[in-house]
From TrEMBL:
InterPro entries: DUF2339_TM, UCP035905_mem. The keyword Phosphoprotein does not apply. This is DUF2339 domain-containing protein. The lineage of its organism: Bacteria, Pseudomonadati, Pseudomonadota, Alphaproteobacteria, Hyphomicrobiales. Keywords: Membrane, Transmembrane, Transmembrane helix. It comes from Rhizobium rhizophilum. Pfam families: DUF2339. The keyword Transmembrane applies. The chain crosses the membrane at residues 123-140, 152-172, 184-207, 219-243, 288-307, 313-333, 354-375, 387-409, 416-439, 445-469, 481-508, 514-532, 544-561, 567-584, 591-609, 629-646, 658-674, 694-712, 724-742, 754-777, 784-806, 826-844, 851-869, 881-898.
Length: 921
């Protein structure tokens, strides 16, 4: 029974072919009849039915168009099968389609496929093709299980059956497909038959080698490869699905062949040829799915081979060949995405361009190269060749991105791969984790990798710079979007790579290798900026130019850190930024002033890292005249000069930033010198005191007044809001430190041996007077709530100075709360507070200041509460009586004083009113 299976399958194929031919003939006849009826309904061969219908509906009021006007002259040749000859000109209906919208033309030319077509044509053909493929497989299986015929004969029959299916598929394609293309375009009858024959051939060849061993591995490999490439070639005629089958056969062929001496070179040469052939076929037909799969499969093969193989050369060369094929076969992205040529960079344009073109090809290529390249880094710490291979793959991928217009993903992923490779090879993440856990850096693990790693990554950085600048030079005018992306890569990535190698392999005292490399890098980027400026890169490439400027500055800053140390690096960093800023006199590049901002930010980082700038052991203990004066003073002076230099610069944000930094550096320089002087030349080992904090508060109050004055002369948001921020900081210092944490009443700190000139004078009276003066100065320049807060702060500090001075008079140099209170001391507080209230009342009357009179009333009420609540309970004898008697006289005097003030105001108001003229009777 099983012997008849081939005959049954061939009979089924013949019946299917015969039935399909009859259906096609019938459809052709029906189509001819329909066309003939349409032409007859139109009245002539050249007039379409639609015009005839319109003419019939118009009636007698509408005159029909003449035949000559309705359609061009048609040849009198007879129709063949109901259709005009090829020499017949197009009808009016065909020409009128060109006037319709694109969507309408597509709908008219490609009607929706009916359910009958889906079930009767496409599904039936697919099911039939699958049945034929399974028939071929079962035939191979039958040849294995049955012993009626010899193995050779059975395999020959299976191979002939596959070839017969391929031949029949091509026969149907040549005879039936051209006439039934519109109706059965999705049925893919020839392609299904060809795919079924290919599966049968693959099965027969594999059985001949893997089961019966009729042929050796070499011949089996060649036959399978020829079959796969043959199917790939036939896919040009039958479609992308057959190309996928050929690609799958090509990539699976090495797995079907077992040999005792596998050759990695032979394997990857074959895989490379298969991938390139797939790319060529796909490029001819415009396919995108199959070549993306081919690139992914080659990357997977590379990852599998890297698991056990010691030779990575063929793997790397195969991946480089894939990059070359992608670069040479597939075209770049055109500038047809709605933006004008030469338009400046924008995030919307970048989003459109990232998703344009063969996106799947770009991403699969990048990942297929990047992942094996990263795996190559783990091939052993002593072998440097995998690192060379990694650098070659990353450089090749970056070069492909540079050569291709619009290749965002190869460019971006090559940059990410270079950075990940540097981090992985140096063990940066692992070492940082160990350091964060408190175990320090494992220097043996770092430096055991050897010096070649440093040179390889520096070379890779140089290659990326040259590729980026070459791409920018070619396309900065035509494609500023991706040129700006390359500017960011060329400016940032090489500096990061050089910094990583300097941290792990550099000589911190003086590293000429990294220093000279950084100087060269900065010079090249700066020269590129000048070249692009002269080529007219502005304004479209303005952001790219700014990025290159920033990269040159960071490179020079790296050179300073590699060749200098300590306070010299800090000062030179500020001078470097100032040099960029002074270049604004010759070039109006928008990024030049911001370089000074970046330089000052770097100086702040160095100060935060080590406030001494030279080390605590090397810092001189001489007040003022020490290393801190130039280390803090020169950057502060340069910041001030920069703000002055940019007083007429059109960019307001950078001017505001430099003004704020100048104020900050000036205050920081004075504060650090004061701390150094008051702590005996030590910055980091002593706790702050009230005297030191008082100087800081005075500095902040003075800064607020200076910024207010600058705002009057040169209005600026930095000066306006900075003055109020400084005043707010000073108020917070008063509440939290002067009255709280550093108050000698709580800390027990010595107030000094002198009666009046002591710690209380510095800590309370002088800041209080400073607040009062600032409030008086700001009363008509700043909002009223801010002025009231300043005045209240001054009043509170003055009240605290009087109160603590009274306690010092009775308790001596030390006035902590644990020493308790004496009765005379308690009575003295009432007298002092009443004196303050009376004094404020007099001043308020003298200057007609309502706020002072309100403050006087508050203090008097506080004194009254103190007398009735505290003095009554704690004082005894004559002190209690004197307290109440004194309070009574003072309150009566204050009442009489207020009556005098109010009556005086009433009299003056009466005198100021105009006299009324007497009225006559």
């Amino acid at each position: 029974m099983f012997e008849l299976l081939p005959l049954i399958l061939i009979s089924v194929l013949f019946i299917i072919h015969r039935g399909a031919t009859k259906r096609i003939d019938r459809l052709e006849r029906e189509l001819g009849e329909v066309r003939e009826k349409l032409f007859r309904l139109g009245g002539s061969v050249g007039e379409p039915a639609s015009l005839a219908v319109e003419n019939s509906q118009a009636g007698s009021e509408q005159v029909a168009l003449p035949l000559d006007a309705a359609a061009p002259t048609v040849s009198e040749e007879p129709l063949i099968d109901g259709a005009p000859r090829q020499s017949e000109p197009a009808s009016v209906a065909e020409k009128s389609d060109d006037l319709l919208p694109v969507a309408a033309r597509q709908d008219s030319k490609a009607p929706a496929e009916s359910l009958e077509n889906l079930l009767g044509a496409r599904w039936a053909v697919w099911a039939g093709g699958l049945a034929l493929a399974l028939g071929g497989v079962f035939l191979v299986r039958y040849s294995i299980e049955s012993g009626l015929l010899g193995p050779g004969v059975r395999l020959t029959l299976a191979a002939l059956f596959g070839l017969a299916l391929i031949a029949v598929g091509d026969l149907i394609r040549r005879k039936a497909l051209p006439k039934a293309e519109a109706l059965y375009a999705n049925a893919m009858v020839p392609g299904i038959l060809t795919a079924a024959g290919a599966v049968s051939l693959f099965g027969a060849i594999y059985a001949a080698h893997g089961i019966y061993e009729f042929i050796g591995p070499t011949l089996a490999f060649l036959l399978l490869a020829l079959t796969a490439f043959g199917v790939l070639g036939l896919s040009l005629l039958h479609g992308q699905a057959l190309a996928g089958l050929g690609l799958a056969g090509s990539m699976i062929t090495p797995l079907l062949i077992s040999t005792n001496a596998p050759s990695l070179w032979t394997l990857f040469i074959f895989l490379t040829v298969a991938q390139v052939a797939t790319a060529l076929a796909s490029r001819i037909k415009g396919w995108l799915i199959v070549p993306s799969i081919a690139q992914s499969l080659l990357g997977i093969w590379a990852l599998i081979a890297l698991i056990d193989s010691a030779d990575i050369t063929p793997i790397a060369l195969s991946l480089i060949a894939m990059i070359a094929a992608w670069m040479l076969i597939w075209p770049g992205t055109r500038t047809d995405h709605g933006e004008e040529q030469g338009a400046p960079l924008s995030l919307e344009a970048l989003g459109r361009r990232m998703a344009s073109g063969p996106l799947g090809l770009d991403i699969t290529l990048s990942l297929a190269v990047l992942l094996p390249a990263l795996v190559m880094l783990d091939r052993g710490p002593t072998d440097q060749f995998p690192l060379f291979a990694f650098a070659a793959l990353i450089a090749s991928l970056a070069a492909a991105g540079s050569a291709r217009s619009g290749a965002f993903w190869p460019t971006a992923l090559a940059s990410v791969g270079a950075l990940l490779g540097a981090v992985a090879k140096t063990g940066l993440l692992a070492q940082a984790q160990v350091a964060l856990l408190g175990f320090g850096w494992d220097e043996d693990a770092i430096f055991s990798l050897g010096g070649p790693v440093m040179f390889i990554f520096l070379g890779l950085a140089a290659v990326i710079v040259l590729l980026g600048l070459a791409q920018i030079r070619r396309r900065f005018e035509a494609d500023p979007l991706f040129s700006t992306i390359w500017a960011a890569i060329a400016a940032v990535l090489p500096v990061i790579l050089a910094t990583i190698t300097f941290v792990f392999y550099g000589v911190y005292a003086r590293d000429w290798t990294h220093g000279l490399f950084a100087i060269g890098l900065g010079a090249v980027l700066l020269a590129a900026c000048e070249y692009l400026h002269r080529q007219g890169a502005l304004p479209a490439f303005r952001r790219g130019l700014d990025l290159l400027l920033l990269g040159s500055f960071v490179a020079f800053a790296l050179a300073l850190h590699a060749l200098t140390d300590g306070i010299v690096t800090t000062i030179l960093l500020a001078l470097l930024g100032f040099a960029y800023l002074m270049a604004t006199r010759w070039r109006s590049w928008s990024g030049l002033p911001w370089i000074m901002v970046a330089a000052l930010a770097g100086v702040l980082f160095r100060i935060a890292w080590d406030p001494t700038l030279v080390g605590s052991d090397a810092l001189s203990r001489t007040p003022i005249l020490n290393q801190l004066l130039p280390g803090y003073g020169i950057p502060a002076l340069l910041a001030l000069l920069s703000a002055y230099e940019l007083r007429n610069w059109p960019g307001q944000r950078v001017r505001n930033a430099l003004q704020g930094l100048a104020s900050l550096f000036g205050l920081l320089a004075i504060a650090i010198l004061v701390r150094h002087a008051m702590n005996g030349g030590v910055l980091d080992s002593s706790a702050p005191t009230l005297g030191e904090q008082s100087i800081y508060t005075l500095l902040v109050v003075g800064l607020s007044g200076i910024l207010m004055t600058l705002d009057l002369k040169s209005p600026s948001p930095v000066f306006r809001y900075g003055s109020m921020v400084a005043g707010g900081i000073a108020i917070l210092q008063t509440v939290s430190l002067h009255l709280g944490a550093l108050n000698p009443y709580f800390t027990g700190e010595s107030t000094g041996s002198w009666p009046l000139i002591n710690l209380l004078l510095i800590g309370y009276l002088l800041p209080g007077l400073a607040y009062a003066g600032l409030a008086f100065y700001a009363r008509d320049k700043r909002p009223l709530p801010y002025v009231v807060l300043l005045a209240l702060s001054g009043a509170v500090l003055g009240f605290a100075w009087v109160t603590l001075s009274v306690r010092r008079f009775w308790q001596g140099e030390f006035i902590p709360y644990w020493k308790g209170f004496e009765q005379a001391e308690t009575y003295s507080y009432s007298v002092a507070w009443l004196a303050i209230g009376v004094g404020l009342l007099a001043l308020g009357s003298r200057f007609d200041a309502r706020s002072l009179r309100i403050a006087s009333a508050v203090i008097v009420m506080l004194t009254v509460a103190k007398v009735f609540l505290i003095d009554m309970a704690n004082l005894e004898g004559v002190l209690r009586a004197l307290s109440f008697i004194g309070l009574g006289f003072v309150l009566i005097g204050i009442g009489l004083f207020y009556q005098k003030i109010l009556s005086g105001k009433a009299v003056s108001a009466k005198l100021s009113e105009p006299e009324e003229e007497p009225t006559g009777i």
